[in-house]
Amino acid sequence: MLNQNQTPLLDALKANAARPHAPFYTPGHKQGEGIFQPLADLLGKAVFRADLTELADLDHLFAPQGVIQEAQQLAAAAFGASQTWFLVNGSTCGIEAAILATCSMGDKIILPRNVHSSAIAGLILSGAIPIFLNPEYDPVLDIAHSITPNAVQSALQQHPDAKAVLTVYPTYYGVCGDLSAIANITHQYNIPLLVDEAHGAHFAFHPELPTPALAAGADLTVQSIHKVLSAMTQASMLHVQGNRIDCDRISKALQLVQSTSPSYLLLASLDAARQQMALHGKMLMSRTLQLAQEARTKISQIPGLSVLEMPQLGGSPGFVALDKTRLTVTVSGLGLTGFEADEILDEKLGVTAEFASLQHLTFIISFGNTPANIEQLVQGFNTLAKKYRRSNLTLKNQVWQNLDRTLDYALQLSPREAFFAVSEILPLTQTNKRICAEIVCPYPPGIPVLMPGEVITESVLEYLQQIQGMGGFISGCNDISLTSLKVVK
What we know:
Blueprint: H1 8-18, H2 37-43, H3 46-49, H4 67-79, E1 83-87, H5 90-102, E2 108-112, H6 117-126, E3 129-133, E4 137-138, E5 143-144, H7 149-158, E6 164-168, E7 175-176, H8 179-188, E8 193-196, E9 220-223, H9 225-228, E10 236-240, H10 247-257, H11 264-300, E11 306-307, E12 321-322, E13 326-330, H12 338-348, E14 355-356, E15 360-364, H13 371-387, H14 397-406, H15 415-420, E16 423-427, E17 441-443, H16 458-469, E18 473-475, E19 484-488
């Protein structure tokens, strides 16, 4: 029986940091002795004493037999997996490894069009062929939800040779689709269901939160422990259950996409975050849900504002549950875009959102937030509504709807073929109907609007220019000013 009170990796790191010895190994700063003073003044010396390499007592990430193995076994038990891998390159490397472990060159994988850019990287690395599904779309809220079970069923009927299904659960807005139904359909074809659960690491620790992906039937899930729990930035986990996925292939894939010099600060933070949730998770999430509900209630009462809630009549196939710790506020009723409201709140009112979109602002509320944070958030929106309100804003929702229809086009080249093809850079005005050779996405949340192998269309170009014109940031591409694009020559 595993003892969740233990932190084997954290304890070993603490002991090695305090052990008197002469260090003749990496890193070069030698437990902080060589750190430049301005950085030491910011972070303190203790963190550098613990910044160690793969010493004998600290185990090896790619072949764990000691404290890392013990810490991963404890994490698997806490999160409901049969096996867990610690990730130091973020959930990005976990998604890439999941695709590499299940798909070879030319294999088909079914996935939503609103996947994170890490999934596109996985397609490029593996050579897999994407079968894209459009997620359920709410034209009133201008928000894409989850793919539906019917869409997955139809795709598998048309492509019974697909090797895996990948979905996002929850979305950046905290929306969860019917994952149990998708898992049942996927397993009828005896292929694995992979889940990008980057924003759902907390689901396993409170009954009022959506069902965790593993409990809903996922074969593999990747969680950003740093996004909503207490691990350090870049620290994530990959979990597997069942026998549909070759665990040895997961391990080998992770060796391709993870650093060979893993940060033990990140690894130890995963061990500590797991213990914290295993012992105190329900209490911490109860407090978080209470704070989130206070914010939802008060902000929804401010004239001109509304918050994302579960649809009436029990939702829809693409929206069956909502993570109530994720707060999305619609600000267009104030005559402001989400980008404008985000800038005002951040620069003038001391409130910083997770991300902005055309009509909304989205906030992550975690147990790291305080009642004072919530009070400042509510007060910020009160001030925004009273002081910065303008006449009603008319947004071009048809742009999103046109974009949604545009997503039906066929991929002209595989993402890998386009990525490695001979390319050229052209002015934006000359790229219509050309094949894109790079990833182009508004950030955050890092969901590509164009990816290698796709045909560039007028509606996509119009949408990107609208996002940029309203204050959004375009990332992933060579020219972030968006005056040019890289296309296949």
